[in-house]
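Lab notebook page, bench 4
Experiment: in silico fold of construct C2
Operator: M.H.
Input chain length: 402 residues
Purpose: comparison with the prior construct
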Amino acid sequence: MKDLTPILKTLWKSKTGPFLLVIQIAVAFTILINVGHMAINKWHEINKPSGLDEAHLFTFTANLPVEPDSYQARLEQDFADILELASVESVNATNSVPLTSWGLGLALNRTESDESYISYAGVYSMSSNFVETLGLEVIMGRKFDDAEMRLSSDDYMIKSTTAMVTKALAEKISPEDWTQTVGKTIYINGRPYQIVGIVNELIATWPAWWGNKRSIIFPVLTLTNESKFMVRAHPGQLQQAMEEVHTLLMRQPGRIIDKYHPFSHTRETGYKPMISSLVILIAVTIGLMVVTMLGTFGQARFAILRRKRQIGIRRALGASKWQIVRYYILENMVITSFGILLGVICAILLNVKLMDFFDLLSVPGEYFLVGAAVILVAGQFAVIPPALSAANISPASATRSV
């Protein structure tokens, strides 16, 4: 470490270049930490479990080619016909399909007053067998009784008096102990609903919504001309079930089927904008690191050109090539360390602002350690080529060049 004092003196005498590099490293570190944190959070969001048996599900919309007073009979007949297929395990209809970005959300309250607000939740109203069809896990309470399940031409809010919620929503309803949520009454638009069961997970229809783990289910399906079907196939028979169901339904005159996809396609489509954002964040991070490395390389190269005579004299006095390389590596570590220290302060300040504007979580401490290591390693890779070039300067050529 005997080179440390000369390095600090040299940097102090020629402050402009090192200072600009320190600023560049600080900016790179600040962006790297916060963008990296956002990218990892987005990755977790994209891979968030939905609570559904995705591998065996497919969905589609289909019209009911009958008069409105025959909707219920036609839908029940469709259910019966589909369930006769050997490749199908279960089927139901729903007002919304998860991750499609189309659905209803409602505010939950503890009393009839809006001032007793609990949380906002994504809403599902489904026909019977929805637990079996979607593969949901009921972890507390019970699923709906057959007597509670209705197909209705009226709004489900009028007919239903019970509801089921996800665990994430139960934690909002009973923050002291979510297991006590079963049996409690919540209010929506002034009407009471009793919670009879809790499912572990059921993601809402909006992939980008930060609260999409909060869903509520009503046991009434509102009948319309177009129904959204969710079908669960037996293991290994998804493609066969899709073909058989499509052939079966198209036998009905006037039938129109749309958005006929396995749920894997629904997930991919729903998260496509977030995946694009993730790719952009990764590209920005990589580009930033490349620019920082180029800045380090340029600064080191410029320092070598300015100190060519000094290097030649050191070589004439017996300095080895390794000592020359070590000097520039250590100098780079000093500059990078100052940049990281300044970057830590800037990264914390930026994260506080992002938390205020975008409701993000604070950056964990380990991100700063990993970020510092990445910046240090990138700086070393950038400085090694110019350092090796400096080590190859001969005393004679350095003296003649002055």
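Observations: The mean pLDDT is 87. The longest helix spans residues 321-358.
Next step: discuss at group meeting.
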